[in-house]
Amino acid sequence: MSANIQQNTVEIKGKSGYLWYVIPSVLVVGLLSIIIFNYHSSFSIAGIKEGLNSEFLIFLLIGVFAQLVDSTLGMGYGATSTSLLLSFGVPPAISSMGVHVAEMFTTGVSAISHYKFKNINKKLVLSLLIPGVAGSITGAYLLSDVIDGNVIKPFIAGYMIILATVIIIKGLKRNIQKRKTKKLGVLALFGGFMDSIGGGGWGPIVTSTLMGQGRDPRYTIGSVNTAEFAVAFASGITFMLFDGISGWQVIAGLIVGGIIAAPLGAYLVNKIPRKPITVLVGVLLILLSLKTLVKYF
Question: String of b and e for 13-25 (b: at least 16 CB within 10 Å)?
Fold first, then answer.
């Protein structure tokens, strides 16, 4: 009798684990099919050839770098990619849309990769999902339909400097004694909202807070990155509903670069020195944001 119960439990767990692969895969493939079906008439062979130029290569490299940063540090994809895109003259609305639509693909691959390498705390992922999605949708709606992206461009740059400072401070801290996380839903709600408004912030806000409370870096990074798939998917769909899709070069470059880098980042999450890389990324973001502020004023 007990052997049968044990066997049934194993089968249930096996099926549950299978879903962690299936759900992201189905959503990503479904989204790609919808985009191709709805927007295929906008593309032509000549247009695609013209678009695959040096700018596309730049966006691809941004995607690779941003995803490596995010997968290994648990933060920084939005901040890194948005700062780099703004520094190359991409408008804020297109930058934020491009980052979040691309994240719908890259975070799906990242979630599958982190699950494969057993970097996930399932309870933590599920606790972050709903409030994170709610905050993300609210922020994406405001940026798409209410707030003028050009007006808030300097504020986004200032916000990125704050995020970069948080990244550096958290990266320099030594191991902290673990404390119980309070108001996890509020944290996820705020992280999702700021991520959509500023084009980044989910990782620096959520990951850094949880790690600052002494949580294990490996499982915190893997879990927050996995929950980010739902957050990015919600904000990306919201942007698409209110603004459609524009700046396909940006989106395609970020997607290809991110998909290339996601499995490597999940593998490297516990194998690289975190402190020097964290500081380096933070300094880079500050310099890029300062450049954006100087150009704006």
Answer: eeeeeeebeeebe
Residue 21 lies in a domain: no
In the chain, the number of structural domains is 1
Query: How far apart, in whole angstroms, are the C-alpha atoms of residue 80 and residue 93?
Result: 16
The Cα–Cα gap between 263 and 253 comes to: 17
Domain-located, residue 138:
yes
- Cα–Cα distance measured from residue 91 to residue 156, given in angstroms and rounded to the nearest whole number: 12
Q: Which domain holds residue 126?
A: 52-296
Block mean pLDDT (10 aa), the chain, length 297: 42 53 69 63 56 78 88 76 85 78 81 82 90 90 71 74 78 62 85 78 78 75 87 81 75 87 78 72 76 73
169 burial type by CB count under 10 A (0-12 exposed, 13-18 middle, 19+ buried):
middle
Number of Cβ within 10 Å of residue 59's Cβ equals 27
Measured in degrees and rounded to the nearest 5, phi and psi for residue 175 equal -60, 135
pTM: 0.70
Owner of token pair 């096996």: 14
* φ/ψ (deg, to 5) at 262: -60, -50
Residue ranges of alpha helices (H) inside the chain are 2-39, 45-51, 54-73, 77-87, 92-116, 122-145, 153-172, 184-198, 202, 208-212, 217-243, 248-268, 274-296
In a domain, 14, yes or no: no
Please report the pLDDT score of residue 98 as a whole number. Answer: 81
Residue 17 lies in a domain: no
